[in-house]
Fold this protein.
Amino acid sequence: MRLRAWWAYIYPTIVGRFKPTDFSDSLLLKGLLRLVKQHCNSQHIYSTPVHVTAMAFDKSLDKELFSESVTFDATKLTVSVFSYNGGRQKLQISRENIDTTSGDWKFAKLGRMLREEVEAVLPLMQKAIQHMDGIGRLNSAPRSA
């Protein structure tokens, strides 16, 4: 957690508990640290050891099962189906814009879509759904009727 975000999180619980005139600086600091530890333990902030990290993303395990794009003037929308490590298939919509200086495609946040973009992407999404239904639904939960 960044220091500024951490302080904004912990500050409301500290206000009013200590008066600077009541303690010397070292006692105030010790008391403040004790209070912070108590608060962190009660909020389960440190529920996992620091040395344990989340599994890193491995690009080689991410398999693209379907991909189709539609191109407009300066943007390209791509509908894809991916399966990570043989897991459930997931649909992804991404946007690429043309870089005016180099002329290359660069990924951008999908954000809001124009009506024309939505109308062009919907058939691609339908194809992706058919692909997800028809081709090896790996480890996916059965559909409920």
In short: The chain is about 35% helix and 25% strand. The radius of gyration is 25 Å.
